[in-house]
NADH-quinone oxidoreductase subunit C
Amino acid sequence: MEGSTQDKIITALKDRYEDQILHIDTPYDFLTVSLKKEKIVEIIQFLYNHPDTKFQYLTTLCGIHYPELNQIAVMYQLHNLVANQRIRLKIYLPAENPVTPTITPIFAGANWLERETYDFFGVIFEGHPNLKRILNVEDMIIFPLRKEFPLEDQRREDKNDTMFGR
């Protein structure tokens, strides 16, 4: 992404939401903005409508667990298909109560992405039209992509590792 294009996006964000910005970085030339969580829906709507940004396509939405910080990040990647520009937005939620508003009124496609993030990380998207498990069994009591859970039970005796090339 050209520096001037990134500058326009950053300027548009700072003009209206400078008090919400925690950090701006460009790893691998991918504009990444970490934000306070309170106005995430308003900021995404702003980026959707603003004439210099027009981020009107949600590429992905997912969770990231940071156990050392006791936080779960929700990461949104937006795309301006006309100008071929992308931005990554991140908010941080406390791991013991990860709650944030849904963005399904802006992007209908967020429905399944939010359900998947709930299913694997336990993030509650307030206002979601049907927030329930999507890939795991409904009576599961854990959120398996949190790093607090082991990948497998090391005490299992019914598993023969030689069958798996170990």
About this structure: The first helix runs from residue 3 to 17. Residues 3-151 form a domain with the Beta Polymerase; domain 2 fold (CATH 3.30.460.80).
